[in-house]
Amino acid sequence: MNITCPHCDSEHVIRVIHTSQASQHNLAASASFASVGVALSKTLPVSPLMGGIAGMVVGGLIHSLFDSGPAPQSTSRCFLCQTCGQLFY
Description:
This protein has helices at about 25-45, 50-65; strands at about 15-20, 75-80, 85-89. With about 90 residues, the chain is of the alpha+beta class. The chain has a three-stranded antiparallel sheet, with no helix packed on it. Helix 1 crosses helix 2. The longest helix has 20 residues, at about 25-45. The model has no long low-confidence stretch (mean pLDDT about 75).
């Protein structure tokens, strides 16, 4: 049984294990705290750069304290077309 790509109808297809992990949440938390730090530093006699750095550090610390453990990782078996590079199931 030959498997063909639904995108380009190529038969050059391999089976792969695709893993995805939600690691963007930590970066988003630090960035949002950095923007809060910049906004607060505008009202205080502190440089906005220092406020952003302080907010990023505080956001990272708060996130690490309340983090529920490692991020869940999902694994799925799928196919990769070697012609067009698309993943499909």
